[in-house]
Specification:
This protein is about 30% helix and about 20% strand. The protein has about 350 residues and is an alpha/beta fold. It has two domains: about 1-145 and about 310-335, NAD(P)-binding Rossmann-like Domain (Rossmann fold, 3-Layer(aba) Sandwich); about 150-305, Dihydrodipicolinate Reductase, domain 2. Helix 1 (about 10-20) packs across helix 11, helix 6 (about 130-140) packs parallel to helix 11 (about 315-325) and helix 7 runs parallel beside helix 9.
Length: about 350
Amino acid sequence: MKIAIAGASGYTGIELLRILSFFEDISINQITSRKYSGKKLKEVFPFFRDSRYEDLIFQEELDVDSSDFFFLCLPHEPSVEIVKSILDKNKKVIDLSAAYRIKNPLAYQEYYRFEHKYPELLLKAVYGLPEIFRENIKNSDIVANPGCYPTASLIGLYPALKEQFIEETVIINALSGISGAGREPKQQFHYPESFGDAYAYKPTAHRHIPEMEDVIKHVSGKNINVRFTPHILPISRGMIATISYRTSLNKKQLHELYHLMYRYEPFIRFVDQPPHIKHVAGSNFCDIYIDKDERTGFAVVITAIDNLGKGASSQAVQNFNLMTGREETYNLLNISHLGILYP
């Protein structure tokens, strides 16, 4: 199977290269980057020296005819058109942008400032969160890989949503490493600006809100609002989400519900203390801590993921495994020990 990675010089593209380079039964034959077009992979990223793809050359544009399976690590608007061209060739694609995550096309005008041209493909796309949509992913030609904030949040909400133990607004405070903003230089992420600093941003209208509410409605059948506040931490990668919602369940019942729902999930780990970002760095795991504040009636669920791993690229590989009939955990259980973590 020939694999293409579009936008392979970004953080998610590099992480895909890192993981997929250990797949001996595939061949990565296309990597694209307008910035590094014509350069060899090892020239741009020396840590890929001595890998099987060290001499692979970045090309400027994607050739849809030359590969069998596509990973898109591109901005949202270009992905809309490229996904359409791939599907027209009856090939499979995992899109890591938000271009196909939300079913309502009007959300793209409100939150992303562009009109989605292919609403029929929005209905065809499967949201790539295996813990919720595993069987749909297996049979899909287009998987919309979730955002990192929604991954950490929805995993923390799913059992209670599915069993109808959430009735009203959920409150999510999430903290992310700087890599979530991408590799393009921005002043606020420049080292002297970000070191020793932390702050909230877009506290009332973040783009991931409609994505989360879309899945919440699908799972629960209810219009449950999300009160979401994202924060930036002065670290390169990793994410913590603290999720609160009122529930009639006590602490013991919450534990039983979550452990029962996730008992067969290979990448869900329960912890007895609030989780640490360092414990999931470079991995596809999501660590979950569950508690109940009896004084206020709020459940408190805290999740930790690697925003570039389970929040992006390793989750894309998990979806790839499902879409291609592989064991879901194939080459994913020990990826934090495989080579360098970048950034």
